[in-house]
Amino acid sequence: MNNMPEVKLGIVAVSRDCFPMTLSENRRKAVVKAYRGLGGEIYECPTVVESEVHMQKALQEVNENGCNALVVYLGNFGPESSETLLAKYFNGPVMFAAAAEETGEDLVGGRGDAYCGMLNASYNLKLRNLRVYIPEYPVGDPETVAEMIGEFIPVARAVVGLRNLKVISFGPRPQDFLACNAPIKQLYNLGVEIEENSELDLFEAFHKHDGDPRIPDVVKSMEAELGEGNKKPGILSKLAQYEITLLDWVEAHRGSRQFVTIAGKCWPAFQTQFGFVPCYVNSRLTAMGIPVSCEVDIYGAVSEFIGSAVSQDTVTLLDINNTVPSDMYAAEIKGKYDYSNKDTFMGFHCGNTAAGKLTSCSMKYQMIMARTLPEEVTQGTLEGDIVPGDITFFRIQSTADAKLRAYIAEGEVLPVATRSFGGIGVFAIPEMGRFYRHVLVEKNFPHHGAVAFGHFGKALFEVFKYVGVEPCEIGYNQPKAVRYPTENPFV
């Protein structure tokens, strides 16, 4: 994946002037040794911050060594002003962690009181309106702190990516798709840049690639990927031309941004004018690390990018689409898996899920569109059942009045044949019925959700908090014993 951030991590130890500086220094060395023992790479800043002057020196050292994420480590109580100023002036995500005491045999000269210092650090961070990553229990021995740093990496990767991301969109949201239309102000607040273009601009660029000499090689790549699923070989040259058009557009328009994602148009006029649907190309770019959302879903594209940055894997964007029929549930799920029918649903989209995330794939046509259009202009979908296994369904979204919300739900794709069309899977999420009603419906989320392949709820929750979503606005699938605020207590 060539469009994802790489974290270059640094660690700076801090020390309060009435504690031995060597205590922080030696504890930092132990953390670095433990983290490197886990296979991690980290720049160990030699300057221990005891004053604002030290802070400036340490800041210069981590910047000169190319760090884009930072661990501020309280080896003892720590200097609350200097350590928080370091977080303020460092241009990247920051984690705070503190040292636990080592032994009951050395609680006089060897006691660091970092457990206490973390409280003052958090208070000072709030005074300065600074957001940082603080682990669930941010105090530990070197091995525990090293594990905390490992959990910080995917959070840092997503934050670094968002601050250097451009969303390229083509066309307005389709008519009657107001659900995908949300104020973009909050994306600017996240540090995301947005370039909105007309479909006509894209159409012109596509035709400028007529006869592009790279088309045959892209067709060969598609043929190799599709294998026996290459059911529409005649459309591949057009799809290859479109793929080249998008990739060239990305390189010509990324500007000052390192990372790009695309929110593309795919109907109602796309098929008749381009002569195909873009689903398969969207899937291929997403697998390259350039997530492409359908139906000009800008927040969906950003959600996909976050998911790829956290998981370092291909993601997809699906409709939370239809219920599992009761006869199908009774025959293939009940008694085999510990889910009620309300815990299950089908996640579907026309054909934008990458081949590597399907049990098998076939190039087909968009059946829904073909009900009102000639079939030949709806070719280009990649169809198949989604691979079984753990998933995380999630989304970040602005409300109509420009407030940030998000949701996260961990579950799985069941190994149950869907008997349907498109890129589709039978999903199971514990307490999905209640989550559907009291998060998705109650909080006015659209039908598109991003899917990461694995359980990444912990990291995603921290990413959403870091970028400014209030914890109370991050919905999740609450267990039976925890009632939603809007849930009727008499049901």
Describe the structure.
- It is a single chain.
- This protein is an alpha/beta fold.
- It has 15 helices and 18 strands.
- Helix 5 crosses helix 15 (457-466), helix 8 packs across helix 9 and helix 9 crosses helix 11 (279-287).
- It is globular and about 80 Å long.
- The two termini are 48 Å apart.
- The N- and C-terminal alpha carbons lie at a distance of 48 Å
Extended strand count: 18
How would you classify the helix and strand content by structural class? alpha/beta
Shape: globular
| Lateral arrangement of strands in the main beta sheet | 10-11-16-15-14-17
Sum up the structure in keywords.
15 helices, alpha/beta, single chain, globular, six-stranded antiparallel barrel, 491 residues, five-stranded parallel sheet
Secondary structure elements and their pairing?
Blueprint lengths: L8 E6 L6 H17 L5 E2 L7 H13 L4 E6 L5 H10 L4 E6 L14 H14 L11 E2 L1 H22 L1 E6 L14 H6 L2 E5 L1 H9 L7 H12 L9 H18 L5 E5 L6 H5 L4 H9 L4 E2 L4 H14 L3 E8 L3 H7 L11 E6 L12 E4 L13 E7 L3 E10 L5 E10 L9 E6 L3 H10 L6 E5 L4 H10 L7 E3 L15
Parallel strand pairs: 1-2, 1-3, 3-4, 4-5, 6-7, 6-8, 8-9, 13-16, 15-18
Antiparallel strand pairs: 10-11, 10-17, 11-16, 12-13, 14-15, 14-17, 15-16
Helix pairs in contact: 1-5, 2-3, 3-4, 5-12, 5-15, 8-9, 9-11
